[in-house]
Amino acid sequence: MGVCSLGDWLNIIALTALAGNLTQGSGFQAQSLAVGGVFVAKMLPAILLGPIAGTVADRFDRRLTMVVADVVRFAVVLSIPLVGSYQWVLIAAFLVECVNLFWVPAKDATVPNLVPKEKLEEANQFNLLVTYGTAPVAAALFAVVSALTSMVTTAFPASGVQPTDLTLGINAVAYLASAVLIFTLRSIPKDHTRQASTASVLGQIVDGWRFVGGNRVVKGLIIGMLGAFAAGGAVVGVGKAYVSALHGGDAGYGAVFCAVFLGMGLGMFFGLRLLGGLSRRRMFGLSIIVAGLTLAAIALIHDLVIVVMLTVLLGACAGIAWIIGYTMIGLEVEDALRGRTFSFLQSMARVVLLVVVAVASGLAAVFGLHVLTIGGISYQFDGSNVVLLIAALLAVIVGLLAFRHMDDRRGIPIGVDLMAALKGEKFVPETEEQPRGFFVAFEGGEGSGKTTQSRLLAIWLRDQGFDVVQTREPGSTKVGMRLRAILLDATHQGLSARSETLLYAADRAEHVEKVIRPALQRGSTVVTDRYVDSSLAYQGAGRALDPEEVAQINSWATGGLVPDLTVLIDVPPSVGLRRMASPADRIEAEPLEFHERVRREFRALAAAAPDRYLVVDGTLAQAEVSRVIQDRVREILPDPVPHEAEAATGTIPAIRD
Ligand code: TYD
C-alpha cells in the first residue's frame, strides 16, 4: 500500500504539472483547463465504474487482480513520457484510474482477512497514515527531481531531461515494485471466489445511503467533510495556475503540494493533542471555518513564501477536520453500516471533487486575468483568486453550519473554551453531571493493608468535618454481593478470564451508579477499597487479557468516572501473601507469578499518571503509611480544611485492623 500510494501521488503531481507544461504558451485559460482536465479524467472512472469494480474484487482471486492491475498501471504510466501529448496524458490518467478501481477494493477486501479483528481499527489508522503520509514524500521527491533536472539542463542544455518524465518513471517503477511485493504475498486468501455472493449489491448500497441521510450527526459530519473537500478541490483546480502566476514554477508547485500534506500531518497528530480538551464537535466546525479564512488570505496575498506557510495552516485545519470526522463516523455508526458509510463518503468526495475541480478551473479560465490599478499601486487579480475566494466563503459557511448543527456546548463562548483547551483543561460534555465530591481509590495486591488504610483515611476525613462514604469492591451493592460470591468462591474454578472481567465490571457499574456517583453528587467524599485499576492489574495483566479492552469495558461500566486520587499501597507479593491469615479465595490462590504481574501493572499505572497517584511503600509501619497518605490528601482536598477540625490533624485514630 505504501509503495502504491507513493506511486499514486507521484502520478497526480507529475500529470498535473505535465498538463500545464504541455499546454504552455497557449495562454492562461488553456493551461487552467488542461490541469482541470487531468482531474476530471482521474475522477470519472470512479463515478462510472465504482459499484461494478467492487464486485470484481469479490469474484476473482484478489492477489492476481492486484498484480495484474499493477502491471497494467506500470505499462500505462511508462507510456506517458514516451508519447508526450496532452491527449495521451488525459487517456492515460483515465486508464490508470480505471485500473485503480479494481486494485483498491481488492486490497480493502483483503485487509480484514489478514488482520485480526481487534487490530482492524489500528490497521485502518495505519492505512490513513500510509495513504496520506506518502503524499509529502512524493511532493518532496518531485521538488528534488525538479531541482536536480534544472541543474542538469543548465549544465548540459542538450540533455533535454524533463522533471515530469523522470517522476513518471519513478511512479511506474513503484507500481512494478508493488506487483512484485503482492505476488509474493501467498497468504492472501481466495476462498471467496468459490462462493460468489448473489446478495443484492444494489439493495445494500441503497440501505447504506438511506442511513446516512437519516442520522443527524452523521449528516452533519458528511456535509462538513464534503464542504472541506470542495474547498480543497478548488485549491487543487487552480493551484498550479496560481503558483505560476506567482512565478513559482514546478518546484514552487511541489512546495505548495508538500505544504498541504505537511500541514495535514501536523494537524492530525499535533493539532489534536494541542487542543486535546476541546469538544470534538466544536473543533470540527471550527477547523473548517479557520481553513476558510486561511484560504481567503491565500487568495489575497500574492507572495509565494507566505502562501506556502498559510498552506501548512490550511492543511492542518483540513487534517484536524478529516481525522475528527473519520473517528466520529467510526464511533457513531454501527459496525454493519460503517463500511457503506465510508464508501458513501468516499464516492461522494470524488463526485464533489470532480465537479468542483472542473467548475473551478473552468471559472478561473472564464474570469481570466485582471490588473487593478488603484492610485498607482497595481494589484494583479486573476481567475484563480476568484475561485479561491469563493471556496473560502464556502468553507466558512459549511464550517458555521457544522458548528451550529453539532454544538454540544451551547451558550459557552468558543473563545473561553479555546483558552481552557490551550491551558490543558479537559472537556466535559454538558449532559454529564459534574460530580462535586472528592473521590479516592485504594489499590494494591493481597495483604497490602489497603483495606485498613482506606478505613483509617475515612475516619481521619470524618474528623476533618467531611461527609465520607467508605466502600469497597467487589460486593457493595445487593447485586454486587451475589457477584462477589461467584467471583471469590474457590469452587468456581471454571470461570473464564473474560467472564471474570465482565462480572467485576458489572459489580463496578452497579457500585458507581448506586453508591459512588450519588454520593459524589451530594458532595460527599468517597473512599473506595479497589476500583478500575484492580481489573486492569488482575484481569488485564494477571489473566493476560488485552489491557486496552479491559480499560474500555471498565470505562463504559463506570461512565468514565476516574478517581481524583488513587493510593497504591505497594508490597512485594511474597510479603503480602505471607500476611494473609484466612484461607485463600480464588484469586489469592493464584501462583506467585500472577501476583508479580499484578504488582508490576499497578506500578506502571501509577507511573503513567503521577499527579493522580500516590504510591506508598506498604512495608513501612502502619502509622507511617497513614501519615504519608494524609499529607498527600491534605494537599489536594477540594475545600479548605474546616478550622475547628484543624487541631485534630495528625492524630491517628486508635483503630487497628
Ligand atoms: P477482597 O476480599 O476484597 O480482597 P482484598 O482485601 O485483597 O481487596 O477480594 C477482592 C479480590 O478480587 C482480590 O483478590 C482482587 C480481586 N479483584 C479482581 O481480580 N479484579 C477486580 O476488579 C477487583 C475489584 C478485585
Q: What does this protein look like?
A:
This protein has about 650 residues and is mainly α. The chain has three domains: about 1-200, Growth Hormone, Chain: A, CATH 1.20.1250; about 200-430, MFS general substrate transporter like domains (Growth Hormone, Chain: A, Up-down Bundle), CATH 1.20.1250; about 440-650, Rossmann fold (3-Layer(aba) Sandwich). About 70% of the residues lie in helices and about 5% in strands. The protein has helices at about 1-20, 25-60, 60-85, 85-115, 120-155, 165-185, 200-215, 215-245, 250-275, 280-300, 305-330, 335-365, 385-405, 415-420, 450-465, 480-490, 495-520, 530-540, 545-560, 575-580, 590-610, 620-635, and strands at about 370-375, 375-380, 440-445, 470, 525-530, 565-570, 615. The strands form two sheets. A five-stranded parallel sheet has the order 4-5-3-6-7, with helices on both faces. The chain has a two-stranded antiparallel ribbon with strand order 1-2. The chain is elongated. The two termini are about 60 Å apart. Mean pLDDT is about 80; it is low at about 195-200 and about 640-655. Bound molecules: thymidine-5'-diphosphate. Thymidine-5'-diphosphate (TYD) binds near residues 446, 451, 473, 538 and 588. It is a multi-pass membrane protein. One of its GO terms (molecular function) is ATP binding. It is found in: Cell membrane. Its main location: membrane. It catalyses: dTMP + ATP = dTDP + ADP.
